[in-house]
Write a structure and sequence with these properties.
alpha/beta; Rossmann fold; four-stranded antiparallel sheet; 8 strands
């Protein structure tokens, strides 16, 4: 859409196209990978649109990522800001009768806020807007098939490192890769993740910043085995799935039937 004139877009409106909305974040991805992970989501959406005939809205490059605030270079939106911006993006098309929309989310922490927006639009517009959490869409079995090594999935590890290496190899810095550092102690407990710690096998939730989990923002997984070949395999899987879903949504009615409660 960003490359189209308004006249060109108006011609496509008669087709009632599916429009993909790529979301992501600008945040630390470990020292080896580009911070702008939204570019991966945007590129995968573009490739899926080429196969399905869908359109791609400009990516929202910032997400809700407050726990990365201790790393310079990140840009975070407050929850209420993210909800307001996403609502405005979606309703800008809904106002013109374009209601076959698909959110392609590349940042996990956006997900509960996306759900809020989708539920509000369901109630106010009686339209169902689906979303896909892109990286979670890769099944564990596929990663185990692609990687002989185990436990590679996680922030700062896979799948983003290999997919980034495949799509934007010029932005990958293998020479900067570091192993994980020791996690800090808070409230007398070693932190587990940005959501808290463990106490005698029980999860205890409290806010933790990413730098407290790892000084380089490596929150899980491993990037040691990253390769463009592995990234290509995961990208192909995601592109095929999103393209197939977009094709399906083209033939589906997103409007709730008259008389059915939107709640």
């Amino acid at each position: 859409m960003a490359d189209m004139t308004q006249a060109e877009f108006a011609e496509r409106m008669d087709e009632r196209p599916v429009v993909l909305f790529p979301l992501g974040s600008q945040e630390v991805q470990g020292p080896q990978s580009q911070m702008g992970d939204f570019r991966l989501t945007e590129r995968i959406s573009e490739l899926a649109a080429e196969r399905s005939g869908a359109l791609v809205a400009p990516a929202l490059p910032f997400g809700y990522a407050d726990f990365f605030r201790d790393f310079a270079g990140g840009i975070q939106l407050r929850p209420e800001t993210f909800v307001a911006v996403l609502t405005d993006m979606l309703t800008s098309l809904l106002d013109h009768g374009l209601n076959r929309l698909l959110i392609v989310n590349g940042h996990t922490t956006n997900a509960p806020l996306i759900a809020q927006v989708a539920r509000r639009i369901r109630r106010s517009e009686r339209v169902l807007i689906p979303s896909v959490d892109l990286w979670q869409a890769l099944p564990d079995a596929l990663l185990e098939e692609i990687f002989e090594e185990r436990n590679v999935r996680g922030h700062g590890g896979e799948p983003l490192t290999s997919i980034g290496l495949h799509l934007f190899p010029e932005n990958f810095r293998a020479d900067l890769h570091r192993r994980k550092s020791d996690r800090v102690i808070r409230l007398g407990m070693r932190v587990r993740s940005v959501s808290g710690a463990d106490f005698e096998g029980m999860r205890v939730n409290f806010p933790v910043d990413a730098g407290e989990v790892d000084r380089n923002g490596l929150l899980g997984g491993s990037a040691l085995h990253a390769s463009a070949t592995r990234g290509n395999a995961m990208t192909e899987y995601l592109v095929a799935k999103i393209a197939k879903l977009a094709t399906h949504l083209k033939a589906a009615d997103p409007c709730l039937p008259e008389g059915e409660s939107p709640a």
